Amino acid sequence: MAIFHTDCVIQRRARRKVYPKLSYSEARQAADLKTLYARSDLLCNNLFELIVNKLDHKLASLFPPKASNTRKLRRKTRVYDIPHVRSNRFKKSNQV
Fold first, then answer.
1. CA neighbor of 63 nearest in space, from 48, 84, 46, 75
2. Which of 15, 37, 78, 96 shows a CA-CA span of 20 to 30 A to 64?
3. Does residue 7 surpass a pLDDT of 60?
4. Other Cβ atoms closer than 10 A to 15
């Protein structure tokens, strides 16, 4: 999160130097840039896909084993099994 915050500060400071009279959204459109959130989301999705698709990736060992049952039961198949939890608080959370 600190890196994302630093990127925000740097981009806003650079925007003020290049487009001093424009607001952030106007300067972003003038420079044809995506929002920082959109770029961060794209980078995170790309990293996740890279880790999942490349078995010898350094971070691949952090993922749980892939699901053994890959039948399409409802809308889409699950790539990973849902962990067994014992607390109702975790079951009701959005972690899964």
1. 48
2. 37
3. yes
4. 19
